[in-house]
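Posting this for the archive.
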Amino acid sequence: MRGRIEPAIPVPPDAFSLRRIAVPAFAPSLLFGLAEGAILPVIPLSARGLGASVAMAALVVMLIGVGSLVSNIPASLITMHKGERWAIVAAAAWSALAMALCAWTRHLGVFLVGAFMIGMSQAVFTLARQSYLTEAVPVAYRARALSTLGGVMRIGMFIGPFVASAVIHLHGIDGAYGVGIVALAVAAVVGARMPDLEAPPADPTAPAARPTLRSTLQDHRHIFITLGIGVMLVSAVRASRQAIIPLWADHLALAPSVASLIYGLAGGVDMLVFYPAGRLMDLKGRRWVAVPSMVIMGAALLLTPFTHGATTLLLAAMAIGFGNGIGSGMVMTLGADHSPRIGRAHFLGVWRLMADIGSSCGPALLSFMAATLTLGAGIAVTGVIALGAAAQLAYWIPRAGAVTRR
């Protein structure tokens, strides 16, 4: 098993440059995001083409999230044993295989397996990327690096559907999977060429026993039940917002093209602000971004049920996008800040598991509230959860400078 890692050639923080590692650090994430963006819109259509009902097609999409959820802990074990670089390569190859299954099968059961495999690869890839950057980037640049990581993934997912649309026009729906496979193949090649990380010199004061998942849970239980709860709330709000905008647009009887435009503009605002937010987190502290992110999203969500047309919904959606955008990389940065040097992959695996639980519960709660009360009530509850997340983060995130001292 690889030991915990440092860059092969240590770089002083004042000599470090994100540009120098931009291609090996961020290109795989851009390509992975492009691959997912290309295939996600066609997954339900492919399922329907194989005979799935509307409900079953929705279940197929959910299976991707379930695959990620149940694979976070195994992803930590893979990263611990194989190292970050080869975990990234393996995740890209596994996802490409899954997309090939989805494209070429004519059996719905095999298609379901492929969707689940895509979710599994998400967990391994994201955890390995986060762990790699946490080790390779000095603490003074950590938030910028992880915000950029989240930002380029979103850019890739934004570009993916447009690339896939052009290929689908020429080659049919299976062309979207071809785009994903090609992007993942390039991501695997770039990942394999990343600078390797070496084990640091042995620390004579460090405990001889290697950490286990159980010991990690025991040693860091305070972080998991305090700041971890805040992360679950953040993830619940973020996952719910993806459904709220199109659902409320439908409630207002807006045309699908208008709803799509509003969603796209909100996504554009989301993508534009990730780097300034990461820089602010590095210079001023995590609270300066984490808390305003949730306050802005909470306020915008609470105002959304009062919108009455395309213009007012667009303003609310753009505010939601801005709040979400400045929080890009926030969950990963907080996890990296509190992860132990020894056993980091175990810690981050649990951290991502908590975030994925929140992502699963948020839309479920929205659906329950909409079914039992009204959609507006469900959106309002989501806004209250966002404000609760802001309060939780404000109380438990360490003061500025605490991360550097650690």
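The CA atoms of residues 47 and 53 lie 8 Å apart. The chain has two domains: 19-198, 213-405.
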